[in-house]
Structures are given as structure tokens and as C-alpha cells.
Amino acid sequence: YQISAQAAGVETDFVSLKPETLKIDVEDLIKAWKPEHKIVFLPNPNNPTGTYLNQKEMEKVIHFFGGRDDVVLVFDEAYVEYADAADYVSALRYRAQYENLVVLRTLSKAYGLAGLRVGAVFADKKVINYLDRIRNPFNVNSLAQAAALAALGDKDYLAKAVKMNSEGKQYFYKEFESAGISYWPSQANFVLFDCKTNAAEVVEDLLKKGVIVRPVANYKMPNYIRLSIGTEEENQKAIKEIKEILGSK
Questions:
Q1: Residue 164 phi/psi, 5° resolution?
Q2: b/e for 219-229, b at 16 or more Cβ within 10 A?
Q3: What gap in Å lies between CA 48 and CA 221, rounded to an integer?
Q4: pLDDT one-digit tens code per residue, 162-210
Q5: Which of 33, 103, 174, 183, by CA, is between 20 and 30 Å from 74?
Q6: How far apart, in whole angstroms, are the C-alpha atoms of residue 12 and residue 1?
Q7: Out of 3.40.50.300, 3.30.390.10, 3.40.640.10, 2.40.160.60, which CATH number does the structure's domain 2-153 have?
């Protein structure tokens, strides 16, 4: 969002995550808002931490910003299919109540169509009309549209992908706990863990072993790594190499 805003000549401000929870504090967000802030973006679940706003927190945000004519509230739910916490709810539940509430979805994650760059926006007709005016012509090609419709109809694949992701998360949790590695429970398709050292070196060492992970120093977390969940074999290899490399630091 920052890059897109910069390209449009728009300034951005950030609300930091609480270090003890790696979550947005709703009160901090509300206090940080100023009338010149015309759009508020909230990823839920959050990337790269996998943390989330629960129903109570979400409703507090929505009730504060919802219905205002001076700001648009956008929830990015790219990882919503993986969210399994009992108190997680989608912002779609509240969409029809507020003209300024926008919800984003993608088929790049759970549906595995990242290369097609296709997703969806749920918003009031007024917002959709504005978006339609500025979007690129033919912004989603016909093949991507056909693939998206097929993917949305394949409930069996989605259920299988979500189940595999859940099992992979539990495996990572168990292995991290046994190795004494700090991690954050995730509502997404990755787990964030703490290297207790500069993650850049660990990332390079893992790459040499054939394990590709995501450094998150650009999110001001230089000691953390985001580990995506893969197949059972990939997960086992990743954990083996992580344990060996961190054990040698």
C-alpha cells in the first residue's frame, strides 16, 4: 500500500504493532487517525505476523470509522480462508451496513492462483463506480477470469488446501516449541519465528540449503523470519535446516 500511495503522490502514516503481541492496538489506531487520513488499511489476518483482530476489536474499529464520509476503511482479507480462530470474523459481515467499508479478497493464497493476479473487492456501489473509472482497461484477462470461476467452484480443493495448511502449522508449532524457538500462532499460511539474531544471515544460510524463507526486516523486524507452510516433506526439510542453522549461531 505504501508503494502504491507513493506512486500516487500520497503520504502514508503507520501504526506500530504492539511488541508483546505483534498485533495492532485498536485504541492506538483510533488515536492515530487524523482527518487528513482518507483511507485506513487493515490486513486481517495480518501479514507478516499471522496475528488478527478478533470480533470485539474489529467491531470497535468498524463502529468508529464506519459510516463516516471523510474516510474509507479497507480490510484486506487475503488470508481469510486459513483463519480458524473461534473469535475471528470477516468484515463482510458488516459490509452492507456501511458505505465506506471495503473488503479485499484474493485467489493468490488458498486458491493457488498467484500468477494470474486475480482477486475481488466488496464495496458499496458508489465505491465500485469510482474504482471502475480508474482501473486499467482489461485489468483481468479472460483466462484469469475463467480460472477464478473454476477455482471458486472447487470446494474440495480448498478444503484440502486449508486442511494441509492447518496440519503444517501444528507441525511447526510442535517443532519450534521442542527447539525452544519463539514463534507466533498464525491465522495465515505461514508462521513467524524469532531467530534471536540477525535474520539476514539465517536467510542466506537456508537458501544455500535449498530452503527459501521470507525476511521481514522491511517491516522493522530484523530478527524475524516468515516461514511459509508447504508439503509435509518441505516442512520437515525446512525445520531440520532451521534447527541446525540456529543451533550453530
A1: -60, -40
A2: bebebbbbbbb
A3: 10
A4: 999 999 999 999 999 999 999 999 999 999 999 999 999 999 999 999 9
A5: 183
A6: 9
A7: 3.40.640.10
CA distances from 70 to 11, 36, 66, 78, 83 (A): 16, 9, 10, 25, 31
Closest CA to 19 of 216, 184, 203, 190: 184
C-alpha 215/C-alpha 222 separation (Å) is 8
Q: Which residue has the cell 521470507?
A: 214
- From the CB of residue 44, how many other CB atoms can be counted at a distance below 10 Å? 26
Per-position DSSP letters for 116-139, written without gaps between them: G--EEEE--HHHHHHHHHHSPTT-
Among residues 129, 59, 52, which one has the least CA distance to residue 97? 59
Q: What are phi and psi of 227, to 5 degrees?
A: -110, 115
Assess whether the region 2-153 and the region 156-247 belong to the same CATH fold: no
Beta carbons within 8 Å of 67's beta carbon, 6+ residues apart: 97, 98, 99, 100
The CATH number for 156-247, chosen from 3.40.50.300, 1.20.1260.10, 3.90.1150.10, 3.10.310.30, is: 3.90.1150.10
* Cβ proximity of 221 and 183 under 8 Å: no
* Domain boundaries defined on the chain: 2-153, 156-247
Task: Quote the DSSP letter at residue 229.
Answer: -
The single residue listed with the C-alpha cell 484477462 is 141
Q: What is the pTM of this model?
A: 0.93
